Description:
The protein is of the alpha/beta class. It is built from five helices and four strands; from the N terminus they run αβαβαβααβ. It has helices spanning 2-6, 16-20, 31-46, 68-74, 80-85; strands at 12-13, 25-29, 62-67, 88-90. It has a four-stranded mixed beta sheet. It is elongated, with a radius of gyration of 17 Å. The mean pLDDT is 91.
Amino acid sequence: MALASRHAIPTIYAWREFVTAGGLISYGTSLAVAYRQVGTYAGKILKGAKPADLPVQQPTKFELVVNLKTAKALGLSVPQSILARADEVIE
């Protein structure tokens, strides 16, 4: 992220934490939900379930986060259609 910032390169990340730290945009799965699923699976295994018997699950929650402060610093304008769809807009 520091390299992109130093060279004023707009970037898109997979996790919101990068945008919170100053990245431009992220679109990806919710890490909080994924960690909760891991905890649920670990609990099932600790209670005796066989890992091979547990179903494989795909993410169902995706987040779009936009950092307008970074966009302004890069001289970019983010279309209103993107802002309307964003789960969070950091100003």
